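Figure S4 source data
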Amino acid sequence: MKKERVNLKRIVEALLFVSSEPLSISRLEALTEGLRIEGESLKQILIELEREYEAEERSFTIRKVGAGYQLRTWSIYAPWIRKLFHTRRVVHLSKPALETLAIIAYKQPITRAEIEVIRGVNVDGIVKSLLDRELIKISGQKEVVGHPYLYRTCKRFLEHFGLNSLANLPPLEAREKPSARKIASTSDLSFQNNDEGGGEESESETLNPEGITTRTEDTEKD
């Protein structure tokens, strides 16, 4: 029985290792269907793996991200990981795009016009870019003249920023405009410190390109 338990742990570990996105309990149940592992047992296995990694001082850990679980490397290893992936170039978010995303995250659901009132500039291109990247989604229409679309963040937003839920967003002080730096503080996305080009995205090297199985955890290992 003990040997079987160890094997189940290694199966779950292998699934987390090869997955490029967080795996939910229901997804793990489906992937291990033939083994008849229930949700509570899977949760216990994840806890055991996390404790095992901590006891062995591994370079990675398990974190709950959005609706699922994912392997993440500790941030103290970021310099070496950066060297490994320095040749890979990915499109990342500019500062204007992050500012727009921050406004949506804190004020959702919100219309494009309401975003523009806060930012003071046209955000058509930025909103389209965020939709294309599946960081936001249309969640209905506002019951006003013209019935404008309402925008919300979606699952990929939580995954990119390493958040379990929107409740994990940094607190927003009274009368403070949503800040790109505030939301970026929990993110593995980088941004440029300029507003040129109206918030268009540009290509640049970044530490955590999409598709890397183990991502850097924001909290340093003690």
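Figure S5 source data
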Amino acid sequence: MGRIRKIYLSNRDYLAYLLDYREYIATLGYAQSTHLSRVFAAMEFLQWLIDNELENIQDVKPAHIKEYYKSLINRPSSRTDGVICSGYIQSHIRSIRLFFILLQEKMIIIKNPMSVLVFKIPKEKARPKPVLSISEVLELYRHTETLQERAFLSLCYGCGLRSMELTAINLEDLRLAENYIVIPHGKGNRKRFVPINQRIRNDIEQYILHERSMYLKNENQKYLFINILGERIRRYTFVRMLKKMIERTGNKEITKKGICPHHLRHSIATHLLEQGVGLEQVRNFLGHSKLESTEIYIGVSQKQLKQLLS
């Protein structure tokens, strides 16, 4: 699952707990990035305990965790002039809860100090997400130069796939004859089926027939998107691919929006809603577990939500 960041815990027991936690997280079906963030959060917490002379995990009380929480909400951000975002804090607290659950399951602690704590995560003002208009999306399509670029657009925009889903897709996930694609491990390890129309199907088929074969180093290669080395294309390559398409348009309005692949997913969700598709249908299309996630994601106000559900 990757190497632990180079923070060397001087407490051997804490290091052992951290390694147990890493194995525990790996069994829960999280994405690779989530594995790492969960472990990093526990590691930072354990280092804070050491820095505050709490060398025995049994001595950690709810009051100590409250102090750690205060340090989190006041921690300066490395990316902005303010403090770290509420999403990071929320993820951090969830990680520590899981960590103490494991310790209790392994009988390392008798009482879980997190079980009596409720944290009010500071709310942030929602930032408007960049959205391309339908005409701008069509402009991107007109400025594709390869079949791979066109297939990428059709899956990222036309199917609303997340970046991690796009990079992970294999040939066996394509059900082109039945006009859908299987996403076996979406966010939260949820499986879903994404419908495709004839245009998307054609874009994928043309890429597989005429371009993908040019990159093949092994006939048994299962990845859909492969690079010139015959390896799976990673997220940063798709980011560059989209950037080149945007540059070719010469459209300053598109450039100004700072679009990344994830914003194409946001755009199709917005367009579907604008065209009268029901919120529940959009939710299923995106693979959200909660309706609230869809509401936030596509920028629907509470008033609009009530209208849609009435």
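The mean pLDDT is 85. The longest helix spans residues 32-51.
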